[in-house]
Amino acid sequence: MSDPYGPHQGFAVPPMPSAPPPAPPDGGRAAAVAVLNLSGLGLGYALLRRWVLTAACLAATAVLLFVALPADADGVPGAALTVYVLLLLAAAVHGAIAGLRTRLTWPGRAPLALLLGVLLLTVPAGGVVWYDDAHEEAVQQALLDRLDQADHLVTKAGRHRFATARGDYGSALEIYRDLAAEHSGSRAAAQVPDRMRSFYTTVGAAYGHQEYCDAIEPLKYLRTVPRFMPKKELGSLGQWPDDRLATSLYECGRAGLTAGQADWVTRFDDLLTTFPQSGPAAKVAPAVDAAVKKAEKDVDGGAPCAAVEKLRDLNTRITDLSGSAGSAADGLTQSADRADRSGDAGEYACGVDQYRDRDFDAAQKTMEQYVSDNRNGKNRDRAKKIAIGAEVAQTLPAAGKKLPTTASGGSITVTVKNDSPDDVTVLYTGPVTGSFTLKGCGSCKSYGLADTLRIGFKPCNGGKNYPQRTLSLPVGTTYFVHKPHGDSTATPASDTAKLRSGYIYTECAYTTRTLGSSY
């Protein structure tokens, strides 16, 4: 059949459009796409068949979940969360623009899509709530871990001496303080008061073991804790160390006083200064007085010199202590005076002991000191005799066999002359002890060594008017020592005279390069 229009009257079909024509603008649809994209799943883009952008939204959400989970105490990094929120907002805005004139694949009606988007917002909202709970629990667990860390430090420190463990105690205390002050609502903070009781008990354990000297520094440390910890966390613990420290200072000081250690003054001074009205402070003066009384009794014991030395030391230290003793000062001053008097009186017993131990040089010095210190001492006269006997015994040791007495007089006449130009002090001991000084002989001179070696040499035989002194001494052995008066560097001369009835004796002092004597 031929073409009715002829070969030149045909027509062409127009080409199909490359994409569906834009839909009329729909604000509801735009809002639905925006809300669906806010879910973080890219569902708005999915309904617009924008699969690449859908995948981008899902990837962003996956990255955020990877960073955020599992929930820990540090939470989501602020930068990551900010970037993710900006991406969601950008997706919502872009989705709204794209959905304004683009039909949805499903559901076809915009209100239903919007309702679906609103419902899906509960997913991220619920995730936020769940994450907040998980994060809070992680924070609580982290704080509890810190509490356990502090507990471990305290336990470890309790196994060592305080000086070594102080650093660990300080670290634990810092953790407790931070929990109580900076995380007051946490479960860990609620346990801090109980932990502080354990802390105090551990630090002050030496007191519980009655190791009072070792307890002092830890208890002083505990008194500083209220400067750092909130008062409500401590309660009555703020005063917990006070009575214990006062007791420790007293007991440590008392032990040092009894043992003769020097640090007792520091302990008592600390006690009287820090806790002047405490019970232990009231015991200080009686304890010191008891120590003085014991030292007084020891003067009559086997070591009188040590007792005297202790009384001297007590006098000095008690005097120092009384200067800052407050109400205890009067009692301490009385004890110091008593120690001083008893020390002076005890010098006599010390000198006797030294003499009997044949320490004649020490005995002489002690007895001379006793005579000087005790103007009205009951043993003063005999002390003078013992000092003389001790000086003689340093030259003639046999003279120290017996302790000199205060006896005087006798039936034997002994005349002592001075054939020397120098004043001469004559010391003698035996049944009778004494000393005197003879003036120098004005017409006499010192003998040379050759004179003393000459046959027939006999001093005090020149017919001169020699200065002299006559003594009446008992029968027995008397020991004489002659020395230049006031010259402690010269070598004294000596003589041992065995006196018998019916004889008249003469002692002669003369000077050579050393002193000599004859009778």
How would you explain this protein's 3D organization?
- The chain has 519 residues and is of the alpha+beta class.
- Among the domains are: 27-120; 283-399; 407-518, Sandwich (Immunoglobulin-like), CATH 2.60.40.
- It contains 20 helices and eight strands.
- The strands form two sheets. Strands 4-1-7-8 form a four-stranded mixed sheet, with no helix packed on it. It has a four-stranded antiparallel sheet with strand order 3-2-5-6, with helices on one face.
- Helix 12 runs antiparallel to helix 13 (264-274), helix 16 packs antiparallel against helix 17 and helix 17 crosses helix 19 (380-395).
- If you compute it from the alpha carbons, what radius of gyration comes out, rounded to the nearest whole angstrom? 55 Å
User: Which strand-content bin applies to the residues?
Assistant: 5-15%
Strand count, sense and barrel status of the largest sheet are: 4 strands, mixed
Specify the structural class.
alpha+beta
Q: What overall form do the CA principal axes indicate?
A: rod-shaped
Averaging pLDDT over every residue, what do you get?
83
The helix content, as a percent range, equals 55-70%
Annotation, overall tally of beta strands = 8
How are the strands ordered across the major sheet? 4-1-7-8
Q: Which regions are unreliable across 5 or more consecutive residues at pLDDT < 50? A: none
- The count of helical stretches stands at 20
Distance between the termini: 196 Å
What is the element string, with H for helices and E for strands? HHHHHHHHHHHHHHHHHHHEEEHEEEEE
